[in-house]
Amino acid sequence: MIDEKAPCSFEELGLPNTLLKALHSVGYETPSPIQAASIPPLMKGGDIIGQAQTGTGKTAAFALPILAKIDSKKNIPQALVLTPTRELAIQVAEALQSYARHMKGFHVLPLYGGQDMRGQLRQLSRGVQVVVGTPGRLLDHLRRKSLDLSDLKMLVLDEADEMLRMGFIDDVETILSHTSGTQQTALFSATLPAPIRKVANRFLKNPEHIHIQGQAVTVDTINQRYWMVNQRQKLDALTRLLEFEAIEAAIIFVRTRETTTELAEKISARGYSCAAINGDMSQSQREKTIRDLKKGAIDILVATDVAARGLDVERISHVVNYDIPYDSEAYIHRIGRTGRAGRTGNAILFVTPREQRLLGSIEKTTGQRIARLELPTSQDITTQRVQRFKQRISEARAVTPKGFFDSLVIDLCNELDESPESLAATLAYLLQQDRPLRAEPQEHEKFSKKDRPSRKADNTRNETRKDDGKPRRDSEGSRKPRKRTQESSETELETFRVEVGETNQVTPGDIVGAIANEAGIDSQYFGRIEIKENYSTIELPTGMPKEVLKHLRKVWVRNKKLEMSRVQEGGKPAPAKAIRKSPAKKRKTEGSAKR
Ligand code: AMP
Question: Which is it for strands 300-303 and 250-253: parallel, antiparallel or unpaired?
Answer without folding.
Answer: parallel
